[in-house]
Design brief:
alpha+beta; Deoxyribonuclease I, Chain A; 6-stranded mixed beta sheet
């Protein structure tokens, strides 16, 4: 089984890239983030023509997550409140969480808030959102031992996940409180699939559109697959496909694929 995560940065803008990629890469599930479209306007037809079932949680112009699966998913839900009954409704106003089950594997597709700038209101929101995510995943673990949590985390956990030409002190996506919030989540029992196979630095999943960052490989590894022990043992590869980033008008993220 292959599960891919890809921040497509507007599915309507990038639909040709995504469909072409799926035609050449027969993944079982594609987890998309930043679809930036309400569900009724999502371009469903090209996915259905390729044989994919779609599960959507969209929002106009911002955020949005979606699952495209070759076989129907079970137990699909979106938002925190579907799992955490005491979660306040405002946490689901931004469409950032969707989950479903395929062949006994629960997939959790996330678009973690960026946080804007350390110390800002959006930064505080990000830290509180991550704390709620920790409780959400803790709840899911009570009923499932095979979970793949993936998506755009907007956090580079280690120094080697960032190109070395910038100072990361108090840098958004690399500040210590963000990293600690993610470490707290991983302490629930999740491990980084990519690091099972690649321990070196220099591998990235996001490059700024500015300053020729992609050509110079000035990137960040912020798109992840985190796995429970059962799945971690079953994982046979985890790779970043940089080819779509080379296309005209690409997403600024590349797909990351884990295989079991």
């Amino acid at each position: 089984m292959k599960i891919a995560t890809w921040n497509v940065n507007s599915i309507r803008t990038r639909i040709g890239h995504v469909v072409d990629w799926l035609s050449q890469n027969h993944v079982d599930v594609l987890c998309m983030q930043e679809t930036k479209v309400v569900d009724t306007d999502f371009p469903c037809a090209p996915f259905k023509e390729l044989g994919y079932h779609l599960y959507l949680s969209g929002q106009k112009a911002y955020n949005g997550v979606a699952l495209a699966s070759r076989q129907p998913l079970e137990d699909v839900s979106s938002g925190f409140s579907a799992i955490l009954s005491d979660a306040q409704p405002e946490w689901d106003e931004q469409k950032r969480v969707i989950t479903g089950v395929i062949d006994g594997i629960r997939i959790v597709n996330l678009y973690v808030p960026n946080g804007s700038a350390v110390g800002s209101e959006k930064y505080d929101y990000k830290l509180r959102w991550l704390a709620l995510l920790q409780e959400y995943l803790r709840s899911l673990l009570t009923s499932s031992s095979a979970i793949c949590v993936c998506g755009d985390f907007n956090i580079a956990l280690e120094e080697k996940d960032i190109h070395n030409s910038i100072s990361i002190e108090n840098h958004i996506m690399a500040s210590e409180p963000e990293r600690q919030a993610l470490r707290n989540i991983l302490l629930l029992g999740f491990a980084d699939a990519f690091r099972k196979f690649t321990t070196d630095g220099g591998y990235y999943s996001w490059w700024d559109y500015r300053a020729a960052a992609f050509r110079r490989n000035l990137g960040w590894r912020i798109d992840h697959h985190y796995l429970t022990p059962e799945l971690y043992e079953r994982a046979t590869s985890c790779t970043i496909d940089v080819a779509p980033r080379k296309l005209p008008q690409p997403s600024d993220h590349a797909p990351v694929i884990v295989e079991f």
